[in-house]
Structure formats: structure tokens, C-alpha cells
Amino acid sequence: MSQVVFSGLRSLRIQAQRNFGIAAPALNKVSDPIQQLFLQKVQEYKSKSSGGKLVDATPEIQREMKTELDRVAKQYGGGEGVDMTKFPDFKFEEPKVDPINAA
Question: One Gene Ontology cellular component annotation (predicted)?
Fold first, then answer.
């Protein structure tokens, strides 16, 4: 019986070490310099981004984006004053069926 208890304690100790190893990066204590650099860049990007606009966009890039959005809107039925984010309204009409004369 003591062998079963020691075996259970050993597996608990291993499980506790595994859980601790997984939880450590979540506490923002990253020991890997590449991961730390990645986190810094993500935080920098988050501080620069605002309102869904492009980060560090030049006027040329903004002009090109507007041209592409206008082209896509025209291609898919959008235009001046059309809300492309609204779900479309579907109208299904009952088809007209000719009666079959069984006589």
C-alpha cells in the first residue's frame, strides 16, 4: 500500500512542476529574449493603433487603400451612402405553379 501512496505523490509532484512551468510565461516573466522582443513589439503596435486605422501609413498608402475599398464596394454593389457592413435583406417570393389538370 505504501508503494501506491508514494507513486501517487510522485505523480502529483510531476504534475505540479508541469503546471508551474506552463504558468510562468503567463505572468509576463519571459526569459526568452525573442519572446520578450515579440511582446514589446505587440505592446508598441497596440499603443500606436487607434480606431481601426492603419499604423504608420503614408498618404500614398492611405490613397491606395481608399481606391481599393471604392473598387471593392463598386464590384459588390456598394456605392455612395450604402452601408456595406449591414446584413443584406432577402425577399423570397412564392413561385407561381401551373395547376396540373388530372381530368
Answer: mitochondrial inner membrane
Grid look-up 413561385 returns: 95
pLDDT digit string (tens) for the chain, length 103 residues: 556 555 665 666 666 555 555 554 554 567 899 999 999 999 999 888 877 788 888 999 999 998 998 888 888 877 777 787 888 888 999 988 888 876 5
Written as nine digits, the cell of 9 is: 505523490
What is the model's pTM?
0.41
| Helix locations, the chain, DSSP H | 2-26, 33-48, 59-75
**Of the candidates 29, 54, 53, 55, the residue with the CA atom closest to the CA atom of residue 44:** 55
Phi first, then psi: give them for residue 73, nearest 5 degrees: -65, -40
